[in-house]
Amino acid sequence: AQDEAETITAVMHSGLRVLDPIITTAHITRNHGYMIYDVLIAVNENFEVQPQMADFEVSEDGLTYTFTLRDGLMFHDGEPVTAADAVASLKRWGERDSGGQLIFDVTASLEATDDKTVTWTLNEPFTPLLDIVAKQSAVPPFIMPARIAETSADEAITEYVGSGPFTFVEEEFEPGVSVTYEKFADYVPREEPADWMAGGKVVNVDRVVWTTMPDAQTAINALVSGEIDYLEQAQIDLLPILQASPDLTVEVRDPLGFQTMGRMNFKYPPFDDEKIRQAALMAISQENVLATLVGNPEYYSLCGAIFGCGTPLADETGSDTLKSGGDAEAARALLEEAGYDNTPVVLMQPTDVVTLTAQPVVVAQALRDAGFNVDMQAMDWQTLVTRRASQSAPADGGWNIFFTNWSVPEISSPLINPMVNGRGDDAWFGWPEDPALEELRAEFIAADGAEAQAEVAQRIQAHVLETVNYIPLGQYLTVQARSNKMVDMIQQPVPVFWQVDKTE
Amino acid sequence: MLFRNRHFDDKPVALEILGLSVATAGDDPVPILNAIDVTIREGETVCLVGESGSGKSVTSLAVMGLLPKGALEVTAGRIELEGQNLLDLDASQMRELRAQRISMIFQEPMTALNPVMKVGDQIEEVLDSHTKLPAKEKKRRVVDIMQQVHLPDVERIYGSYPHQLSGGQRQRIMIAMALILEPKLLIADEPTTALDVTTQNQVLKLIAELQESHGTAVLFITHDMGVVAEIADTVYVMRNGDIVESAAVETLLRSPQKDYTRRLLEAVPSLVPRDARPESWADPVLSVDGLTKIYDTRGFFKKGRETKAAQDVKFRIKPGRTLGIVGESGSGKSTVARCVMRLIDPTEGRIRVGQTDIAKLARGELQPHRKHIQIVFQDPFRSLNPRWTVGDSLIEGPLNFGQSKAEAMKHAAELMELVGLPADALGRYPHQFSGGQRQRIAIARAIAMRPDILVADEAVSALDVSVQAQVLKLLDELQEKLGIAILFITHDLRVAAQICDEVVVMQHGRIVEHDTAENVLSQPSHAYTRALIEAAPGRHWDFAKFRELSLHQTETA
Amino acid sequence: MAAQPQPTSAMQVVLGAIQLPRNWRLGFGPILAAIVLALIVIATASAYLYVPHNPMSMDALQRLKGPSETYWLGTDPYGRDLFSRVMVGGQVSLLIGIGAAIVSVLIGLLIGLVSGFFRLADAIIMRVMDALMAIPSILLAIALVALNGPSLWSVIFAITIPEIPRVVRLVRSVVLSAREEPYVEAAIALGSSMPKILWKHLMPNTLAPLIVQGTYICASAILTEAILSFLGAGVSTEIPTWGNIMAEGRIFFQIKPELIFWPGLMLSLCILSINLLGDTARDLLDPRLKKREA
Amino acid sequence: MLGYVIRRILAVIPVMVIVAIFVFLLLRLTPGDPAAIIAGDSATPAQLERIRESLGLSEPLHVQFVTWVGNLAQGDLGTSIISSQPVTRLIGQRIWPTLQIGTLTILLSVLIAVPLGVLAAWRHRTWIDYAVMTFSVLGFSIPVFVIGYLFIKLFAIDLRWLPVQGYTSPSESVQGFLSRAILPCLTLATIYVALIARMTRASLLEVLGEDYVRTARAKGVKEHIVLFRHALRNAAVPIMTIIGTGFALLISGVVVTESVFNIPGIGRLTVDAILARDYPVIQAMILLTSAIYVFVNLLIDLSYTLFDPRIRY
Ligand SMILES: Nc1ncnc2c1ncn2[C@@H]1O[C@H](COP(=O)(O)OP(=O)(O)OP(=O)(O)O)[C@@H](O)[C@H]1O
Ligand SMILES: Nc1ncnc2c1ncn2[C@@H]1O[C@H](COP(=O)(O)OP(=O)(O)OP(=O)(O)O)[C@@H](O)[C@H]1O
Ligand SMILES: [Mg+2]
Ligand SMILES: [Mg+2]
Predict the structure, then answer these.
(1) Rounded mean pLDDT of chain D?
(2) ipTM for the whole complex
(3) What pLDDT does residue B536 have?
(4) Distance, CA of A424 to CA of A433 (rounded, Å)
(5) Nearest to A33 by CA among A501, A500, A494
């Protein structure tokens, strides 16, 4: 009977290994979360907060938020969803998510006032609360049964029960290889049409199988030969193969895409010196990085905005050299002026992540051209993530610079952008000690209205690039490819499998 | 009856080889056989003799059509089996013929049988290949032929693997295999060389017996003149791919026509012991007492198994004298030699070299005593390091005992002369010498240490009789000049008779007889010794003198 | 036996040491292999003298271009000149091959001699070697590279470690059988010390099989490097090797097969020649084969 | 015989213990921190430390080792740090594709390689011999992933005879299994065939020079019987040995082939685990593959008695 069931086979960008959507920021786990869990509120295409599991209400003084669960919500184990489940889930999420932490810093109480009602009371107004709770990335507050949500936030959950539109087929789960979801028959979608993460999640297929193909080549071949239906991220250089096939549709999944960036270590020479950081920034050309990483200019754009081009707070102050191809001469001069003593720059290069192999190589060359002594050290990504947490000197297992990518919504505001944080050892890897930045952030939180926020954001942009807190290297789009049999797929950053249908 | 002295002139010819030439294949062929002629009549036994490499085996393989492909080729001549030229046959016709009309027994019964097949099946395979008998009948015939070759306990042996049989039994299986289809011609290429004398004797008798009853013609290849005297009707002598001489056996042995044949026969050692040398009153240089060696093959996990290779062995040797140890294979001769050399550690007993008992000395303490006692091994091809020049090998010992290199080299050059090799040979490598020359080098190396005792473990067994005679002579001369005592180990009574003053006979690790060479050979007191002597083929004939052995010794045998 | 030509004095030591066969009868194949290998070695070793571009310099706008007058074989995904990279890449690949062969042969020889000689050490050493053999070498290599970071030396190290037990076994078996040879016993009787016997009589016996083994290790090291690169644990892309050029190029297999083809061709030719030469050396040096041909 | 088997199995114990210690130490000395992998990009050092603690990674090494061995003795291979799945479950899911494809490869290789090797030895120094040898050297000289790609391009993309990738369990559909397994098996077999063919040829050549082969010919036995009944059986021991040691090659081939053809087997599981520093999985997998290797070679050792009656344990 399974053969006749309508199944979508999708190749995702990475293998699903961690099943706890709260404990990790990994996108694949977030996507998994959207399959089997539901959220209280969600954003639509215009980033407007919409009700999903719950309607919401904000008190006049902005101190009390009330969420009322809609009827018919049920977990996969048959139990109804209660306000207590939502409260436990939010609390666990609040311990892990940086945005959540900010809210809980000002929270007076979070309680289930009855079976259907969650009341969230603050000590002081916190305007972005709804935006943070509704955000689709990195860690959305997924609602799970209270007994599961009571697991410590540092330990992975071991039971995978949600109230989302799909159920997780545990017996068929092979970590890193494949995961199977089945339509949850008792899910009651909202009435409204689906709109990004908001609206009715109407499931039209019986099963969705995610598989991983470690080899991009294999995935492309499999799609061309009709063995799979969907490819979440197609290698852009290989698009011509896909485009040549009349049975396939190739499209950009999410108009914002990703920001790629480099981050320096503020603790050790040479990048403890602002001038030298500026010299580095000056040496780098976004075009070179992006062309190498992506290739086809249709799918990348130069962008100097730390909050991402295409977002409300976008501003490109200070990024001229980055966008105009770098200025090796000026960088050289600046280096000399700073008295650079040829201290080696330990540049970490991951070898096993396709979207991160080009940046280090291109930047290393640019830095060398500007007179830096670059010690590029290749390592696998896991060594890199371990090593970047090390505050030792570069010579003793520390580092000077590394690169990573962010989905643009994840960095689109000073509240959530992890790099924009000047709290020294408590800041993100690189640990800048920057009170001025902290002040600017406080100003942003306090700012009233979009215009005021934009103004502060613009000053943050200028400050970040001036002090070279980090180096935005531009934006690129990911391209999805699907069989033409798949229709009505929602276009958005998170690939979701409601609404989509499969024709024969 | 001394010889078989039968006549076959009236019998039809079974096999006739006419002008057969064989050469190596390839661009520049080297001739191996030069237009040889051989005739074998029904029921006749023709012996092909000659030194190693003379082309005996090549002749037999050519007849069988089994010359190694791509290496050797027939270039001229005919091989006629009952009038049919075998060289005209194609591969499958030739295959048909084998075992049906010609069969062959090979030298090494150890390796000539397939180790992973039951011997019964291997015999039966002949029937499978050439007949379509029902299974029962096949089995019956196999059992029958096995009985004919006097195999004991046929049912058990039928289902045994070769390694479960003794050498003699294996050779009987080979013979059974060869004769089961009653071929016209049996070729036997040194079928008894690997066997000890007693077994050899049985096998020879068996072949003769079967030949009688089946009327088979036999082409018998050997280099052992004793065997020739025992079984041949007609003898062909080969040298360098030529037939030098052929005649009826008695004619050939009594009045050889060609020089080469004479020399070949003269080199055959006589069973008559050498003339006794005067007793020596000097103190013994080597005295062995109560020597016992038990091989203990116990492993960490394996079950233990003990072999008593030597038990309570006792003898002494005086300077300038030669003591022989004889006995059949496995009797413990080499074990004694290796104990005396302290290459292995004796389990019990004393080994006095000069005044010191070296039996229990530790490896390190042994070193100074090494120079008194040296050894020459059987295999001249393996006893010199192929990567070292002869000079380096010769000075290895003296350098260990503190001689300067120049001095040792000078001495080595003298030694080369002593053993009859040119002094310039020092710079050459072992492979550039013949087997006999290598054995001389090995002897020179041992002598270079100026030892008191020289142990020779089968030192001439691997050599052709003529070379053997030279090496024996060399040892004799060296002993004369240097006054060394020699412990001479051999399984060949003829050799022992020629070189030893005293002979020790070993059986199952024990000494069963110990006396002067003359006494042991002429008045053996132990039944085992008598059996050994009796089994020696051609013992009635004194080859070197071309006449019967007229001494009284043979009568007592 | 006919008089043998004497080795000339200069070669004598070498020939004597490894006991090369006295009648070289090389076929067409091995000679061709030797020529090809020599060409590859010379061409890669001197690559910097003639390659038209710096193999590391990138031009993002020229990436994945087809063959042209400036870029003879086209460019790679970083816009680097493929021809220059392939030629220079041979240096590191060959270095890894030769390095791994030499290091593992030397270490294996040392351990093997000790093991073949000292009964007590033998038991322990062989257990450890068995354990090393049992661990799948590719997994061990990936783990070791992950441990040390994918530098050139750690790749050589990672390839070497799993090869050592094989060399040890080889050396040990040669030593064990050679010590039964009469000439070794004769040396004992002549009062030579054990270390001297070990070094002068036994060790030379291991050279010929070690040379053969060395060629195979060399070939398999070059291949292993390619596989490590494929699995994401190879040498950094900055330093070109045939392996990482192919590994980088593999996703472009359908649109730009040259990226795999050229380094693959060089690699395969090189390994093919090394293997052929190894086979020839083995055939020529194997005393058993020699015996049969005599 | 039974005694020998027991002794051999006992002898395996020290080997496996050394493997275990070796692997454990190797991993713990490896830079890389599973906690960082779990936590993802925006974790703070304090969070990392807490995760590390909950995983038991902050205990001293020997304590971790003792715990691990203790659990191992009870058949508990631990739980994957990354996916929180019991390692036994992961192995249970992943081992079948590998075993099936591995077995099929060995069968296929032996069926192809042995006749090839026999042919080459029989027709020694003819073009057949040279062709077989050239092929077998070639098999050693091309990286296995390149062979895989070539097969995909040829059979799956250009000719469209077979699927490009994936794995179907034979219990689901035998045909599906075969159609998906054939390319990976062929890819893996290339190197294995090369190995076995050349060993078959070499040991057969040796055996063909033996006296008993001459005896068989002298008996007038037909050539194919000489080759297969007399020669091949005597040559079997080195061939079996090479099949055993070649197993190591197979494992490294499997790791690559599983990536190229996207087969959810233990090869990929292990590589992923190494790259993710998923200690319990790596340890279990290396122990498991080592144990399989040792076990296969034990079986092969025991199989010698089938071929050679002289070998008695
Ligand atoms: N396969 C071969 N290729 C080349 N030459 C060979 C081959 N077989 C034998 N010969 C040569 O043919 C000659 C005769 O060899 P053959 O084996 O017939 O000697 P033989 O008289 O049987 O000696 P032995 O008493 O040692 O057995 C020798 O010089 C030998 O080197
Ligand atoms: N290393 C050993 N381990 C166990 N048993 C051995 C060993 N060497 C010899 N033997 C056994 O000791 C006995 C005597 O062997 P030895 O070699 O002394 O006999 P031999 O008289 O020299 O025989 P041959 O004439 O065949 O050389 C034989 O049964 C043999 O199997
Ligand atoms: Mg012969
Ligand atoms: Mg002996």
Answers:
(1) 84
(2) 0.79
(3) 86
(4) 4
(5) A494
Global pTM reads 0.81
Q: Rg of the Cα trace of chain D?
A: 24
Q: Is the pLDDT of residue B399 over 90?
A: yes
Q: What H or E segment, with its residue span, contains residue D242?
A: helix D233-260
Residue nearest to atom 12 of ligand 2 (CA): B309
| Structure-token pair, residue C102 | 């030499």
Work out the burial of residue C175: count CB atoms within 10 Å of its CB; fewer than 13 is exposed, 13-18 middle, 19 or more buried: buried
Return the CA Rg of chain C: 22
**b/e map of A102-131 (b: 16 or more CB within 10 Å)?**
bbbeebeebebeeebbbbbebeeebebbbb
Do A216 and C234 count as a contact with CB atoms less than 8 A apart? no
* The pair of three-digit structure tokens given for residue D53, joined into one six-digit string: 């603690």
Confidence bin at B543 (pLDDT 50/70/90): confident
How many beta-carbon contacts under 8 Å exist across C and D?
135
* Residue B486, SS3 per DSSP: strand
Q: Using CB atoms within 10 A of its CB, is residue B459 exposed (0-12), middle (13-18) or buried (19+)?
A: buried
User: Strand (E) positions, A71-112?
Assistant: 107-112
Q: Are A447 and A291 in contact (CB under 8 A)?
A: no
Angle, CA A211 vertex, CA A210 and CA A212 arms, to 5°:
130
D271 to chain C: which residues are within 8 Å by CB?
A: 139, 142, 231
Element containing residue D118 per DSSP (H, E): helix D87-122
CA–CA gap between residue A400 and residue A364 (Å, rounded)? 12
Give per-residue pLDDT as tens, A259-314.
999 999 999 989 999 999 999 999 999 999 999 998 889 999 999 999 999 888 99
CA distance A432 to A422: 5
CA-based angle A384:A388:A394, to the nearest 5? 105
Six token digits for residue C287: 């005393």
What tens digit of pLDDT does each residue of D229-282 get? 889 988 888 888 888 888 888 888 888 898 888 888 888 888 888 877 788 888
d(CA B182, CA B178): 8
Other beta carbons less than 10 A from residue D25's beta carbon: 12
β-bridge partners, B322: B486
List chain A residues with CB under 8 Å of C58: 288, 292, 361-362, 365
* Mean pLDDT, residues A340-365 taken together: 89
- Per-residue H/E/C for chain C: CCCCCCCCHHHHHHHHHHCCCCCCCCCHHHHHHHHHHHHHHHHHHCHHHHCCCCCCCCCHHHCCCCCCCCCCCCECCCCCEHHHHHHHHHHHHHHHHHHHHHHHHHHHHHHHHHHHHCHHHHHHHHHHHHHHHHCCHHHHHHHHHHHHCCCHHHHHHHHHHHHHHHHHHHHHHHHHHHCCCHHHHHHHHCCCCHHHHHHHHHHHHHHHHHHHHHHHHHHHHHHHHHHHHHCCCCCCCCCCCHHHHHHHHHHHCCCCCHHHHHHHHHHHHHHHHHHHHHHHHHHHHCHHHHHHHC
Identify the pLDDT of residue D70: 86
Closest Cβ–Cβ partner in A19, A225, A227 for D84: A19
Pairwise CA distance, residues C28 & C209, whole Å = 23
Contact between C275 and D137 (Cβ < 8 Å) = yes
Contacts with A97 (C-beta within 8 Å, 6 or more apart), sequence order:
A22, A132, A138, A139, A141
Residue type, A214: P
Residue B79 pLDDT more than 50?
yes
Q: Which two tokens stand for residue C135?
A: 């661990």
Q: How many helices (H) and strands (E) does chain A have?
A: 15, 23
Q: Which amino acid is residue C177, in one-letter code?
A: S
Q: Which residues of B touch D (CB under 8 A)?
A: 64, 66, 70, 95-100, 103-104, 106, 108, 111-117, 125-126, 129-130, 161, 163, 174, 177, 301
What is the number of other CB atoms lying within 10 angstroms of the CB of residue C287? Answer: 12
